[in-house]
Write a structure and sequence with these properties.
Elements lengths: L2 H4 L12 E2 H8 L3 H11 L6 E3 L3 E4 L1 H15 L4 H4 L4 H9 L4 H15 L3 H9 L5 H20 L5 H19 L10 E6 L6 H13 L3 E7 L3 H8 L4 E6 L6 H10 L6 E4 L3 H7 L10 E4 L3 H14 L5
Parallel strand pairs: 4-5, 4-6, 6-7, 7-8
Antiparallel strand pairs: 1-3, 2-3
Helix pairs in contact: 4-6, 7-8, 7-9, 8-10, 9-10, 9-11, 9-15, 10-11, 11-15
């Protein structure tokens, strides 16, 4: 993509996009006929926006959902079954198809977590190389396992902090050597809540930089006024990360998020349930709500979309 195009990250369509079916087809490399078939025959995305002349449009969350279905179909799974599943269930199935080069690393790291083997976990991390696939099939499952072990009572809060801290440190060290194209506009990654998922922010940051995009992380718990001010700057793009639990704090933040043009909400456990329970909420229409454990693939698709020019003003 040209230098001029790289400077024009959209202020109105990025991250809360409604791409047309031919654009989704090109981005995901799935034939338009298959996309129509999944929707018409199997009921996928029955809420999709349809405008004049039967023009179908898809939001970023739906695009991520379709991407996972398409990848599972390549592994021989049936679209009729897949189209009825929630994104979290689809991601679990995708993990069953972990590429062979990542299977051993993932299983060993999950085993180290289960047995609270901090030294072993750190040694395993040292042998892992940064890539989008590593983030998706090794790092994110480790983050998710840490959360599961903590919520089940197997981990103390100290265990949670120690192991997740090792993951965050590994991402930061690995990303520090990645060179971005300094001519491109900044993608600003920020956390609205003090409970924001820092791991998801770091994963996104690493993948954007691997695609040559300039990023700036502002940390968590920033004042809403400061984020709104930055969101109004045409030269920048904001990610808003919310609490990792879909609790009352999450719900209260939605009002604040409406001040942004097209916010991305990185939710956590219960995000699918929350969306189902609030499917009629018109305030969610301009938001892209993504599970924080799907940050890697989301960032990968978004970076590719920028390269294709779909998120350019």
């Amino acid at each position: 993509m040209s230098h001029t195009s790289m400077e024009k990250l959209s202020s109105s369509t990025a991250f809360g996009p409604e791409l047309q079916i031919h654009q989704v087809s090109q981005l995901l490399k799935i034939p338009s006929g298959s996309l129509r078939n999944w929707q018409d025959r199997y009921g996928f995305l029955s809420h999709a926006s349809e405008q004049g002349n039967y023009r179908r449009t898809y939001k970023m969350r739906d695009i991520c959902h379709l991407d996972t279905i398409g990848r599972l179909v390549q592994y021989g799974e049936k679209p009729k079954v897949l189209c009825s599943l929630e994104p979290s269930a689809l991601r679990a199935r995708l993990q069953n198809h972990t590429p062979s080069e990542f299977v051993a690393a993932k299983e060993q790291m999950l085993g180290a977590l289960h047995f609270k083997n901090l030294d072993g976990f750190e040694s395993l991390l040292a042998a892992v190389l940064l890539s989008a696939e590593t983030c998706e099939f090794v790092i994110e499952p480790s983050f998710e396992a840490i959360g599961t072990l903590w919520h089940s009572g197997h981990f103390t809060i100290e265990d949670e902090h120690l192991f997740s801290g090792l993951l965050r440190s590994w991402i930061q060290r690995s990303t520090s050597v990645v060179q971005a194209d300094e001519r491109s506009r900044e993608i600003v990654i920020a956390g609205l809540s003090k409970e924001s998922h820092e791991g998801a922010a770091l994963v996104m940051n690493s993948i954007f930089r691997m695609h040559g995009l300039v990023t700036r992380q502002l940390g968590i718990g920033l004042p809403i006024e400061e984020l709104v001010r930055l969101d109004g700057d045409q030269r920048k793009r904001i990610f808003v990360l919310t609490a990792t639990m879909c609790d009352k704090a999450f719900q209260s933040q939605l009002e604040s998020l409406l001040q942004f043009r097209n916010p991305v909400v990185m939710g956590g456990r219960g995000i699918d349930q929350y969306l189902n329970e609030n499917s009629g909420n018109s305030n969610l229409r301009n938001m892209s709500l993504i599970d924080s454990f799907a940050a890697a693939r989301f960032a990968e698709l978004l970076a590719k979309g920028i390269r294709l020019g779909y998120f350019i003003a």
